[in-house]
Model the fold of this input.
Amino acid sequence: MSSIEKIETDIRDAERGPARPGARPTIGNNGLLMISWIAPVVVLIAWEWLAQSGWLSPQVLPAPSKVARTAFKLLLSGSLLNDLGVSLLRAAAGFAIGGGIGFALGTLVGFSRIAQALIDRSVQMIRAIPFLAMVPLVIVWFGVGEGEKIFLVSLGVAFPIYINTTLGIRQVDPKLLELGRVQGLGTWQTVRRIILPGALPSILTGVRYSLATAWLALVVAETIGAQSGLGFLAMDAREFLRTDVIVLTILIYALIGVAADSIARLLERRLLAWHPNYGDAAR
Amino acid sequence: MTLHAIPVRTVPAVVVNGLRRSYGERIVIDNLDLRIERGEFVALLGESGCGKTTLLRALAGLDPIQGGHIAAPRRPAVVFQEHRLLPWETLWRNVSLGLAGDNPRERAAAALAEVGLGDRLDDWPRNLSGGQAQRVALARALVQEPELLLLDEPFAALDALTRLRMHDLVKELAARHRPGVLLVTHDVDEAIALADRILVMRDGIIAFEHSATTRGGATATRARLLLELGVTAGTAQVV
Done:
């Protein structure tokens, strides 16, 4: 290829905009979106067909349509919304407590070397324990009740928030801190206008990660023992071999996980609109 | 009563006496004296590592000094080599960072207008070119109405054409606001183009001083400065 031809292709490439791997001009983004849904839909249809034709015992895996009908019935009776509400409330309470503690400790350690010396080693030691290994001990402490569940969720949430808050504060560009001094910012102004915004991407990563942990903790806590909530719904259904209800609760757990992640991402887009990797410009 | 010529009373923007600055054993600035008047544009030339940025940082109050005295009336404004804009704040918020007093937005808007970005108040730093970002940094320094403006190689990262435009802008702004200016640079031509007085720093002291009033012509000045900087090949070509 001569150099002039090369330059011309370069110009054409440039006009087409940044190349996306796998993206051809013939298939737009909508086309790609549709293609990505082919596999899940095929699996769903196959599942329905296998269940209807009797290949799959309803005891093993009920048809999707059966699960949908069950969902509708439980919705009408009000029990589904009630249990869902109880579960969400537990998750929210645990998230608030654990997140608050993680953020407070993370901020302290991020700012102060003395606080780091005092706190960080202990936190890292506790973090080394898989928090689900604590379940038997937590049951001894709190019994099987709300306290146990909220404690487990808090435990799962606190660490990701703690670590990412500390990291975020530590990673704030020292050149910007120096600028703050040159511009005569006080301590509080420096924290508010330079340190916290600079740490925010990292903190939000922690939030997103801890949402997943919170949900996992809740599933485990509710499955071990509960008188209400989604986990109770599933365990109760197990007694009566109601596989349709069990599948339904699993689906709801999945949906809420996805919803929580979407909310976290929306938060990132809003709060990090300035950031080249987030915000609307990155879309 | 006869009229005497009124002596020109100049007001210093900064006075430095016997400044010492060292990193452990190594002395970087040794017994340095310097005086910059308000409205005076001083360029400080020197090889890399000669202590010129160290001097600027000491004047800015960013580093502790080991001896001597720095008298500056107020906190000086600094423009660094990098723009150092806060990426999470809009341009006017960046310009008004640390600005005391009323109407910060109006004053930031006026400063941005002065550097030709008056229509970009609510834009984000990520949408700026390198030259534009450096102009915002300049506006952020000038909005404080500093008596001393410290420029630490602010044009070094810019392309040649942008740099020339920035020279004009800085010269014009310095003439209008009349702070004392200390420009640290390693570009001899930049120093000649902008400064009333050019200092060459070597071995921790000011080894050579050239004033615009005693200037014998740009070519001769350039040759002399290069000689002072220890560049002989360049001088041979010019002379």
Q: What stands out?
A: Chain B touches chain A through 21 residues (CB under 8 Å). The CA atoms of residues 65 and 192 of chain B lie 30 Å apart.
